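Batch 3, record 17
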Amino acid sequence: MSYALECKKIKRTGLISAFLVGGLLASLVPILNMAVRSEMYTHANEPALQILLDANWQMMAMLNLLLTVSGACVMYHIEFADNGIQRLSTLPFQESSLFFGKALVLTVLDILALFIETMALAFCCQYWFSNGAPFGSRFFAELFANYGYLLLLMLPVILTSLLIASACKNMWISLGINVVCVFTATMLPTNNFALSLFPFALPFQTLAGTNMDQAIYFMISVVIEIIIIGIVELIYLRIRRCFE
Amino acid sequence: MNMIETKNLTKTYGNFSAVSNVNLHIPEGSVYGFLGPNGAGKSTTMKMFLGLTRPSSGSFAIDGKHYPENRMEILKEVGSFIEAPAFYGNLTGEENLDIIRKILGLPKSSIDEALELVGLTQWRRRLAKKYSLGMKQRLGLASALIGKPPILILDEPTNGLDPVGIHEIRTLIRSLPEQFDCTVLVSSHLLSEIELMADNIGILNHGHLLFEGTIGDLKKNASFRGYPTDNLEDTFLALIDEDNRKRGGRS
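Prediction for the assembled complex:
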């Protein structure tokens, strides 16, 4: 039910259009890159998907991150702006459902944006790397495995940005903190496993070209992070009432 | 039987005591006027009833259910309106009520009933952020009244309304116990307003309950203590004034 309520609440906020446009904008990155300098990439020996991700994913991930943190801040802004959250607190409704409902909506919006981007990558592979021959099922398996991996690595960001947004009544403060986290993540080296576990740094990782053992470690870490962030939010909701 | 009962209810913020050892007794099926100047602790007490803030000490029970053990059960029975209207500005009045309806598991017709009760039917499809202050106030009231809850907690519900609106809402509140068989706790800083609505009153000042009883009891009590009784506003002011003097504050 909380998912349906959250979907209703984002009416007229422009969030769905923002994610569609954001997804399209991120999709333009590999397309434009290939359109203007395809000769730099078509002669490389690596698989097409890996070449495209190595060349474009940092910029695409950055756009996805900014889109996600803005979405999280807007979702809590509508709660705080006219005190809607206070009314919900006086109803037989768990505030944690509000958080997890928002996380689900944001995940669905990210699924949409990442799908558009994945399709753009598939288009680039087909148009610039296939030499006219259609890609087989192995390529699509690799493409969608990468899509699932990117989505999984996006989940800690969704939860962390919502956690920050839920703690700040002023949207500019939560947006500021989230953006600082995004830019901090860009300064962390992606080849350092421990530093890459910073939630905002995870979406810069890709499956293509990553050692399978390391990918598994990342996935396990992401699941642990999701559980920890969920627990932190639940504890925060419990203790907040004591200080109000 | 008392619908709401508190026992030494206290709320402190550091050294400041917002509510201090308050013992309220709100009878079932009555309109209880909660009176006090600004900052007396009325809203804090009401917020505690709704679980928006935790009591520092003491306890309370609503319809025999104790807080915090039965918080969800209490909230199922209470319709509330606290401080200022709370809504989603990007949604229409109708959509705002629909969110509450879904949470409470009420039929769709309850939205029409609530809008009709507060006279907002005509503006149901207007965005809540475009409502005037009075309309926002009515929307807040509609969200408290939706589903006809057995207990209503209304914090200064006539704020921002024009004289006609104040009269309408006052008449509505007065009629609620009879119409819906409910108990109403309504706060205000105006005795003249409470006098027209309430069966029982509680007067709060600096977090302390100065008086609890009927308007008749208040008059008797005031007369006994030598306060003016011709005008209840003067009685109220004299009561508050003396309490302030006792506390060494400004008179």
